[in-house]
Amino acid sequence: MSDSATNSGHPGPGATAPPTTKPAQLWWKSTWFDIVQFVALGGLLVWLTGRGMAAMDYRWQWYRLPRAFYRVIDGELIWGPLIDGLLVTLEIAAWGMVLTLVIGLVTAVLRLSDSIAGRILAKVYLETIRNTPLLVQVSIFYFVLQPILGINNPLWTGILCLAFFEGSFASEIIRAGINSVSRGQWEASATVGLNRLQAYRYVVLPQAVPLMLPPLTGILVNLIKHSAILSFVAVFELTTEARNLIADTFLSFEVWFVVGGMYLVMTISLSSLVALLERRIRARG
Amino acid sequence: MTDHGQENAQRFADAGRPAIIRIEAVNKWFDDFHVLKDIDLTVGAGEKVVVCGPSGSGKSTLIRCINRLESHEQGLIEVDGIELTDDNKRISEIRSEVGMVFQQFNLFPHLTVLENCTLGPIRARGLSKTDARALAMEFLEKVRIPEQADKYPSQLSGGQQQRVAIARSLCMRPKIMLFDEPTSALDPEMINEVLDVMTELAESGMTMLCVTHEMGFARRVADTMVFMDHGEIVEMASPETFFSTPKSDRCKDFLEKILHH
Amino acid sequence: MVRGSKKPRFGILDVIVLAAAIAAVAYVTYRVDSVLVYTWDWSAIPGYLFRYDEDLGHWVPNLLIKGLITTIRISIWALIVASIMGTILGVMRTSQRLLPRLIGWAYVEFIRNIPPVPFLFLFYFFISSQIIPLLNIGSALDQASPATLGVVEFLFGPANLIENFLSGLISLSMMSAAYIAEIVRAGILAVPKGQYEAGSSIGLSKLAIMRYIVLPQAIQRVVPPIAGQFITLIKDSSLVALISIQELSFLAMEIAISEQRFFEVWLFTGLMYFTICYACALAFGRLEKRMGRHLR
């Protein structure tokens, strides 16, 4: 047993150990090479689509598309149908989100309550929404509930229907968020003398709300996505405007590509926000 | 060879055992974190080595390199005369010679205790089902839980699960057993049942490398103590020397923390 | 679980909820009976479920049941196709190489972010004008023997609608595949790293680890949510009504218009969907409890 054992941990200037650096990575195993291949594949896909369209003798007429966004008549700017549709879609999403939160919150409270009737009502609502297609819900709202309740604006029927649909998801998110706060937190609140309401206000909600935020933002993405289904009942949102425009101009692919792109810009930017929020929360532990 | 390597070789020559594991100037990085720095360690057949050190010192990584659950980036690791490289065939040869027991047991939850033990012999060794079953029962008896053979891991206590994990490794008839903190995930009252099995295994002459903080077990069983810190082997000695006269300050600190509380 | 686990009892909230429910029912009844002066007539519905065929001399399914069969048929096929696509994509998303991960990620994110309705219109147009003609199904079926035709009709529905059915099926499968990919990815990732390590430490090859350790566990985790995806498919398949696939929603729409009975037809259609989906949900719930008992 030599004394050098204790020294090997502190290699001084005269240490015999060879310089140890991490060996370099092979280029074809590198991240960049994979990214280059991925971009190339994407290019190939676009090229193939282009070939397919060419084979179909499709005449691209992109120059006609700006008119779908705006026109200038007598020096006055008039928004085109796609912009009108986009605004309606955004309006549906915004009001839909407010109503979704209200419905979701009420349902979550009923489910978490100890009221028998409340729990049954919430359960019936959730099972009905979960086990029928959105299209059928839209039809029932539009063809049945609208005349019965005397709503005279299909836009509001649509918003109400989407809110009831998304509300079922929102209630689950809120409930799960509150339940994720451990039982010990309630018990600890009680031991420091907080009542139930104070425990919610100062202990449970501050922990639960950050957890709920990303999935609730996800609901906003879904509202934008699902609002397209309202084109089925003549609500003049983006998809309806797109379909009408195609019927008028036969610019099928131009319009669908552009409209798909508009939707993707909205949803992907919101989805990225969700991802960002989630990462923040995970980083905080 | 580093200074440390010479000392290592010296110790080894004194004991007069044939080498079964040779680790020379091994380096490893996790991204930019240098986890293993110029490690030299030789283990003889039948030798019991206990590796200890603070968390993050690289001790688990070291023994995981021996059956290539981690790959080293520089240096040489030789197990029973076979060098560890990217060659997959050699890796599986070595893995069937080296048993490993994990901190978290890692039993297969979808298989019964018996199936856990027979999976390797049947699928890797090509044993018949009856032979594998007989083999498994033999080792389950050695770890004293033959009556649990048809249960699922989730129905057993932590101590029982770890004993099954030991039996599962032994069913491969390994020449070397690696233990990666085998008692750290156990409730205190279950630690001894696992240590007892390990002690018996040591007495049977198995070559063992254990990462553990159970210093009582180390004193009883170890031929050699290895202390690691910051990815280096700081101290290597017989248990008597190691516990009575640790040389480095880092080792003294560590022993103080772990022994006196 | 803190509040929800308390014993239910009758309280003030019950009074409020009941009062609200009674008020809602009363208001709807008042509107229907006194303002709209609507007379309910359900008599047309049974005739659309089954009708008596004079030529054959027995009862045959009529539009609503035919539509339901198409809905179930397209959902089963879409589940099969999407499971295959989704498994490949899901395995790609857990690959150690970046390239397959990127491809899987791009596909899943695209589908998850594009609204289904514009997607259906675009792809239906593309698939039905580009891909389906390549398959040359029409002429193949013309030459088929009656026996083959019978099998094909059982699997894919009426021969004259097969191209239309396939277009809807492909679009629907492409959407569902993205969700199944996520389920498969989660299933694989849920198998802890220690399982792979334990497998290799007893000398199993990579393939054997997959075959005997990872997949059995992943499958137990993945089957219940994929079964749930079947319910989602039954619901989402109603969207293909928009591209004129003649499934339940499409036919309901036609009947409602021709009979001018919107209330009855849509409520009944909703009930049909509910019955199927709820029954599946109950059955799959049992399945889920039975599977994965040992995965802690």
Automatic annotation (TrEMBL), chain C:
Gene Ontology molecular function terms on file: transmembrane transporter activity
Main subcellular localisation: membrane
One of the protein's GO biological processes: amino acid transport
Localization: Cell inner membrane; Cell membrane
Transmembrane regions: 12-30, 74-92, 263-287
Domain ABC transmembrane type-1, first and last residues per copy: 68-284
Membrane topology: Multi-pass membrane protein
Protein name per the record: Amino acid ABC transporter permease
Organism: Hwanghaeella grinnelliae
